[in-house]
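[Meeting: bench + compute handoff]

Bench side (C.D.) handed over the final construct sequence. Compute side (W.E.) agreed to return the predicted structure before the next meeting so the bench team could plan truncations. Sequence as handed over:
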Amino acid sequence: MKPCKVAEKNREDIVAVIDEVEGNSSINLMSYTKVTEIAQYAEKKLEKLEVPIKERVGAEFYFCPQGPSAMSYKYGQGATDVRMIRKSTGWFVVEINRTKVYPKKKASNTLIVTAKQKEIAISKFCQKFVVAPNPASGLPS
């Protein structure tokens, strides 16, 4: 699919792709509302990493729902997953697929960051604490 910004003006386009992918499926369905919630969740994850807005471009987010909770269900169950990419103007849906989820499989909420975003997150994290010198070195015996 062509990247489509998660925005109200693109609701019909996103819903059309979801409908095409899901066909006659009746379980683990995606909705436009869920897509917007996923985009908001992805943005909050970047905020928690303290990546500045201008540096968020290029991050990706993958969501796949959890599998059935009952172990008595032996087979994979159909589910709709979504992959998004962060561009300068917001989150864009780049892929929606049907996949299989298996019993007790946890939902996948995977944020994929660029090398620069990783450096920023590590730098921000390291500013929050001070590393104590090695107590064994520098102390008189």
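W.E. noted at the follow-up: Strands lie at 4-5, 60-64, 77-87, 90-101, 108-112. C.D. will use this when planning the next construct.
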